[in-house]
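wait is this the right file?? whatever heres the structure
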């Protein structure tokens, strides 16, 4: 089966990533989590340092200071037409003329020339990521949970900024994952995309599954309200980040689905490593129980016991509670 993931480089993403490199964002991300960055990301800061005071950079810094989500900023960039960055319906929160400033930055910073000089690095990132996705498809797995998936799945490898987080964006009929390569230890440069398939699968699947499940739950609000009468167990630590039942469930589902996919398409060792990482970094001690419950659903769905995940949703909290208690014995 050919892959259902399209891998591409997008100049609108590269443009916003370059502007982001000249804000205080890189320094602040290092303060949050010290890490080595791609040679291209470091070189971009040095190459374009003279443009730090450009209005496009200043506007972006203002938006970051106002805590504008990166997902919203990159969604806006992807809604523009390159290279003039015209936007048909700019949101009210966009600084006046910011898209025009982005287009001006592209010209003044001579980004076409800079990207041409750095083409080998970008081409390698694209080709490495494409080789990793070549043997797998996500839709057959995810459709067992959310039904038919008509959206396209797009993966944009990013060797600029942000360097330490993936972004998931719904853009028209596409679900887009923008992802950096996996971080290495200390100040070492990140791993090439093709040297860590588990990172690439986990990054992409997490964003696609999150976007799909959010839409699925919103489309079935009545069933969710009924299921939410049973609180999810072992998620007290999640409530500050995910205040609603739907948000909590989505977070658990995304982690559980990623672990199942890694085990089925790579190895149990990769899945176990991911579960351990989630326990350490996100305190998801309940994840092994989530995996067991989701696997039980998949088995019973395939046997015809459940017509859809919607039928299983009210049962999920009860099964999770029992399974988590069993796993803790």
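ok assuming it is, sequence goes like this
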């Amino acid at each position: 089966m050919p892959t259902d993931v399209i891998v591409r480089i997008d100049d609108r993403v590269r443009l916003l990533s370059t502007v982001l490199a000249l804000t205080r964002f890189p320094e602040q991300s290092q303060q949050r989590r010290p890490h080595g960055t791609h040679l291209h990301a470091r070189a971009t800061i040095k190459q374009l340092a003279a443009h730090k005071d450009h209005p496009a950079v200043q506007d972006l810094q203002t938006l970051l200071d106002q805590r504008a989500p990166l997902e919203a900023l990159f969604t806006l960039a992807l809604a523009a037409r390159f290279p003039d960055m015209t936007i048909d319906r700019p949101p009210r929160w966009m600084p006046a003329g910011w898209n025009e400033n982005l287009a001006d930055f592209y010209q003044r910073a001579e980004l076409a020339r800079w990207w041409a000089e750095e083409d080998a690095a970008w081409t390698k990132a694209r080709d490495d990521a494409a080789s990793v996705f070549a043997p797998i498809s996500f839709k057959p797995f995810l459709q067992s949970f959310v039904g038919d998936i008509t959206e396209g799945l797009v993966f944009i490898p990013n060797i600029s900024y942000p360097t330490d987080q993936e972004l998931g964006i719904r853009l028209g009929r596409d679900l887009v994952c923008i992802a950096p390569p996996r971080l290495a230890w200390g100040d070492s440069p990140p791993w090439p995309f093709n040297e860590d398939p588990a990172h690439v699968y986990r990054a992409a699947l997490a964003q696609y599954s999150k976007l799909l499940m959010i839409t699925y739950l919103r489309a079935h609000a009545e069933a969710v309200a009924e299921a939410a009468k049973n609180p999810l167990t072992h998620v007290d630590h999640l409530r500050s980040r995910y205040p609603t039942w739907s948000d909590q469930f989505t977070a658990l589902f995304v982690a559980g689905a990623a672990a199942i996919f890694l085990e089925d398409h790579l190895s149990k060792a990769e899945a176990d490593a991911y579960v351990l990482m989630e326990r350490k970094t996100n305190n998801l001690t309940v994840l092994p129980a989530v995996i067991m419950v989701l696997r039980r659903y998949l088995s019973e769905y395939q046997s015809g016991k459940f017509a859809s995940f919607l039928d299983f949703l009210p049962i999920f909290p009860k099964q999770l509670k029992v399974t988590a208690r069993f796993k803790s014995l």
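The chain has a mean pLDDT of 95. so i think its the right one actually
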